[in-house]
Structures are given as structure tokens and as C-alpha cells.
Amino acid sequence: MKNQKIEGVMYKSIGEFCIYVIKFTKYTKAIGECMLKIDNLKKTFNKKIALDGINLNVKKGEVFGFIGRNGAGKSTTIKSVLGFVFPDSGEMFFKDEPLDQSKFRESIGYLPEIAKFPEKLTAKEFLTYSYSFYKKITGATRDKISQLLEDVGLKESKNKLINTFSKGMKQRLGIAQSVIHDPELLILDEPFTGLDPVGKDGLKKILIDQNKEGKTIFFSSHNLTEVQDICSVICTLHNGKVVYQGATSDFIKEQSSNSLEEAFIKSYSRSGGKDV
Length: 276
What we know:
By secondary structure, this protein is of the alpha/beta class. The protein is 39% helix and 27% strand. The chain folds into 3 domains: 1-32, no CATH class; 38-107 and 183-276, Rossmann fold (3-Layer(aba) Sandwich), CATH 3.40.50; 116-182, no CATH class. It has helices at 14-32, 74-82, 101-104, 123-131, 139-151, 167-179, 197-212, 224-230, 248-254, 260-270, and strands spanning 2-6, 9-13, 34-45, 48-59, 63-68, 89-94, 97-98, 108-111, 185-189, 216-220, 233-238, 241-247. It has a 6-stranded mixed β-sheet, with helices on both faces. The protein has a 4-stranded antiparallel β-sheet with strand order 4-3-6-7, with helices on one face. Helix 4 (123-131) crosses helix 5 (139-151), helix 6 runs parallel beside helix 7 (197-212) and helix 9 crosses helix 10 (260-270). The protein starts with a strand and ends in a 6-residue tail after the last helix.
């Protein structure tokens, strides 16, 4: 069968049309692939509700901001995803498959809010040690580590002991450690905490570069200016419940605001404004 017109488009054969369908299906799946999904997650601590039916979808390639007041449930959600806390009920999925921690941890990079480092090691030694958990150290590994240290702005400090590093330098080293094994998903808990304006700007650039390289980034933060600058999608929590999930710009418009911080304050007030 030749020169068939289907939906207004001329194809030389049915075979050509089938090839188009296969390619289009793969393309649309890749664009909308769900990297991390949380379905009706619940958790209580001593009869106090921490998570009250959380539903969350982080798509491949997004920089996703997870925001809320202290005690809203951000850290509990992240710890549940990482297997540090066991939820009472609900389901979690990674790339549309039930989350298997043994496989999941090989595919993610994680930076906790307060990262601990072996301070008697140099930055280069620490990254070499970290990489050894995933793969055998080779000459190519050493080149990769040197390049990574340059990427995060620590090239000149690679042979300095970590105990001489500032807070910002340690955060950059933490980012380097979290991507050393080339993960698909980065999970960062309050990465901007304690950084000065220059440090925040440097970290934003690193995260943007990592996203351009194909990393999906999911992070919690109280620094809403930074969230607005780099996150296309956000989720807001209040009392363990999702109040909003969607485009950052849409949230700001819905709250008739000029910034994410202003929009969040208005949303918080409208949701009851009660401390948790």
C-alpha cells in the first residue's frame, strides 16, 4: 500500500506510518515520564499527623520545588522516599515502577540539610572514596573527579582538607558527591540553608547546569526567591496536605502576587494560617 493519506498527512506506506507512530509514542512518553510518584502517603508520629494523604508527581527533566512551613511534612516526605521513615500507608513509584530501595538508591543523588563530611580528607580524596561505592576507580575516574570539582568551583581547593571549607564550599562538595555516580534524580533537602548571597547564586548555577545535563531535581527549601528563580514546578504543603502542585508562574498568578514568597504567604493565610 503506497501514498496513503492518514489524518491529513501523506505517507508513502503503512510501514512508514507505523514507524512514525512508534517514534511519536516514545517521544511523548519520554516528555511526560513520571520520575517520582507518591500516592496517598500517610504518616503519624505519636498520634500526630505528619502526612495526610500526600499525592505528588515529579516528571523527568523538571526542577521541582517542595515548599512549606516548618513542620509541614517536607522532610518526612523526603525521608519516606529514601526509606529512612516507614509510612503508615500509601505507595511510591520510581519511573512508573513500585519503588525498590535497592535499585532506587543507585539512581539518585541525595544531599541532606546537614551534611557530614570526613574532615580529615581532601575534597579530591572524599569524592574518590564516594565513587568507590559505585564503581572501580580508574584513570578515567580521576579525570571525572577533577572535572566535577572544576564544575562546582572547587578546582583550586581540591587538595585542601574539608575542615578548612566554608559552608558554601561544603554545599558545593555535597552536590559534587551527590552526582558523582551520574544519577537520574537529585533529592536535596534545604540546599540553600546557611549560604550567603554569593553562595546561593553559585549553587543555583550548579543546579541549573545539572538540569541541563539531564538530571531531574527535587528539592525542599524555605528560600523562595531561589525556588522561583530555578523551579518550573512547585508543590506547597500545609499540615501534611498538598495545597498546590503545578507551574510556579500559575501559582503566583492565582494568588494575585508579584513573587513566590508573596503568593505563598497569601496561600498560607487562606488555608487557615494555623501553625503545625
